[in-house]
Amino acid sequence: MSALRRFAPPPVKRGGIAFGGVSDEHAPATRVVTAGRAQQGTSLAPALWASSTWETDGLDDTRKRAVALRPDSFYSRYANPTVRAFEEAIAELEGAEESMAFASGMGAIASTVLALCSAGDHVVLQRQIYAGTQAFIQGPCARLGIEHSLVDGTRPGAFAEAVRPGTTMLVIAESPSNPRLDLVDLEDLGSITGPFTMVDATFATPIGVRPIEYGVDLVVHSATKGIGGHNDSTLGVVSGERELLDAIWAYSVLHGATASPYDALNALRGLRTLAVRQQHQAATTLALAAALADHPGVAAVHHPSLPDHPQHDLAARQLQCPPTVFALDLLGGVDAARAMLDGLRLVRVATSLGGPETLVCHSATSTHVSLPVDEQLAIGITPGLMRISVGLEDGDDILADLRRAIPAN
Fold first, then answer.
1. Architecture of domain 274-405 in CATH?
2. Please, where in the chain does CATH 3.40.640.10 lie?
3. Is 164 exposed, middle or buried (0-12, 13-18, 19+ CB in 10 A)?
4. Cis peptide before 261, with omega less than 30 degrees from 0?
5. Distance CA 396, CA 386 (A)
6. For the whole prediction, is pTM greater than 0.85?
């Protein structure tokens, strides 16, 4: 039996709160199948409501719907029944009062920040974060007069120390982070009083972690990734208290980053298999990471669930299922990265994650290309850093392709 096949899927821990009609006694694999079915009636599959608008019954009915909160049959920029089914499912899985979907993960982040922050407000931003989020805070938000501070999200107390009483409106973290999977102590983050706190948990999915359990106000995902799981939908989603989500919804109607019912339908279908996909992919991920640590061309392997990772204990406490992504530092730098990408035969070169295909990208020239080199290096993005999203292929086949492609240096 091969080394890879000795790895069984890691157990997924049960949650600590009840989700609407989904019992806390049920395991995550059950919850992803049963969540968000209120609108389906007796149909086992969700309906696709493709309509952009609905007929009304005259002037008074039109006005009633136009001023309503999330009217379900008025205009799809305000709400759409298929999108609502997806939102309700995510809210149940997150243990949140409400969720709202957007046209992308960045649409969710941008709408949330602009709904909650105004000129003169201050944002605390984790330094180890998706470069698109950082670019949004440092670009459009700065032009609108929103200030920010960058902090090391792995250092205990860093977020709280950066809060400016009376000025800081929002603290933004990402855990696990892109691309090295650095973790934030969510108990520490959730204990902050004053500003709202938000965590991008895309790399974990609701199967891996539910930040709201730790006192965090908002959790955001690029549902394009593991939640959708099939590289056929582009969506973002934010979850939290209803009052906060109502404020975000009111802004989003003007901002217009509206989720498509077609993408919501695909993501809802993908959600049903999230637990089984993630368990399988996580097992393969840990096996690959362990096997490649001894490769002569690899300087370091980054995954918080590996026994020798500095945040292993935090991962064991906080993650209910390991992430399905890991990162490699190649000894040969950018030349080794180019040779690796050119040598792959099975693994695809692409920048997304969480789908059925194993994908690899060179972070410095893709997800974080907008950062200057010194800022890349400050968060551990070396010239040889490769991010690998593990798919559903046979683990031995993936390993053989990676071993063959990585230069021995």
1. Alpha-Beta Complex (3.90)
2. 28-271
3. middle
4. no
5. 19
6. yes
